[in-house]
Amino acid sequence: MVEEKSLKITGANKTFITKLTTTINKFLIPTKVGINGLLISTKRNSLIKAFDKYNSDEYEADEKDTLEKKYDDTYTAYLESLDKYVMDSVYKKVKNNSATEFEKDALSRYYGVISLKENEYVEYKFRKQKYLMELDNQAVKASKKEKMIEKYNKFYISKMDWLYKGILKNYSIKLADTMNIYDSSKEWIYMKIFSTLEEYIKEILPLKFKANEEQFKDIKTEYEKYEAFAVGKLDQKDQIEKNMLLLELSRKLFTHSLPLAVAEQCYMKLLKDARALVQDTKIAAKRETVYNTLISLIEEYYNKLLSTKVYWDDMKEREKFKNSWQTYKNIEKLKESDYIEYIKQKEVLFIKNDLEKIKTDKYDYTGLIKYYKRKLVDYGAMKEIQGHNSEGKYFSKTKLKDFIENRNLTA
Question: Per the domain annotation, does 350 fall within a domain?
């Protein structure tokens, strides 16, 4: 019994031992980081060699299967070493309050990815690989070893391309049961599509430009426009315009991962946002600016999507668009000779077509309908009769004629 009592740890001893353990852990963690760093470096070098061999033209077709398996195996081992680093080193440093802000943020992001595992397993698989590679990419850049950075970037760009395509394809599949119809219940998917596109264009596209600028010269203009939105705080109008650019770039970068039917739903989401913003903006000058954004979006929807659409679920809609498209092409002929008339006729076409769509929409567009009709009156495409009732009435030229004839008959 005496012996047992002598081994009993007092409160003071507990505090001392806890402090001692924490101190020892702080000494050991750098060693762990060093061991993990060496392991990661070894796995990374093996991966780059396997990647170069797999993409080399020196090997025959029958050797490709073996090289592909080797590449896949080294990639798996590389990811495992990175995962081990996060759990062995970063986690323990955060736990012992010896982590840097970068390491704290890294662990927070890691758990954000892990949280997807149960309900979004496919996204989790892609996001975890992406996260681990981004973490190591920071280490490679920090090494300032130019040859290593150059070699690693080739692999990094290739694999990131594959991962982003996988993530976007997964979102496309989630929208598959509502093809060609904007589904407000899936708002979070649209937002994820736009944020993923922005991540790619912000982080990966500059690396591609640096590696081979000539290959991507056809999207350089759109990218430079996007860069203008990367500075300062964006309002709702700016956000819509930025997302327009992201969609435009996606039609060239992710044709298969983000197919036309999904891109169409994304355009519908932006059209809904722009219409609502025009309706809700009370200051006249600001409303006019937002309206111009809406008209630009409608025109882009015509040019970049509907004009390239091959398969239509509703053939009547197809015929309607064909007629509108022909009218639009005829109006474009005025662009050089009479620019003001060109702008007027183009807007009238877009307003009339959009009026037809929003009148059957579940969303209440009463304010926008009034605004559209006022525009048509201003452009002489609709007549306004004041005094018929307290609100006034707006008529197209045909309806105006019918109204006058009916009024005369009943007089």
Answer: no
| CB distance 358 to 278 below 8 Å | no
Parent domain of 288: 186-311
Phi-psi region of 10 (alpha: psi -120 to 50; beta: other; left: phi over 0): beta
Is residue 232 in a domain?
Answer: yes
Query: Per the domain annotation, does 366 fall within a domain?
Result: no
Same domain, 145 and 241: no
Note the pTM of the prediction, 2 decimals: 0.81
Looking at the structure, do residues 131 and 193 belong to the same domain, yes or no? no
How far separated are the first and last CA of the chain, in Å rounded? 117
Q: What is the mean pLDDT of each run of 10 residues along the chain (411 residues)?
A: 38 44 40 63 94 88 88 96 87 85 88 93 96 92 90 95 96 77 83 96 92 84 88 90 94 90 93 96 95 96 92 89 95 94 96 94 92 94 62 52 48 39
- The residue among 143, 174, 205 that closes a domain is 174
- Whether 272 maps to a domain, the answer reads yes
Give the CA distances from residue 75 to residues 78, 132, 156, in Å, rounded to whole numbers and listed in that order. 5, 12, 11
**pLDDT at residue 99, rounded to an integer:** 85
The pLDDT value given to residue 404:
45
pLDDT recorded at residue 1: 41
The residue from 266, 285, 311 where one domain ends is: 311
CB 180 within 8 A of CB 261: yes
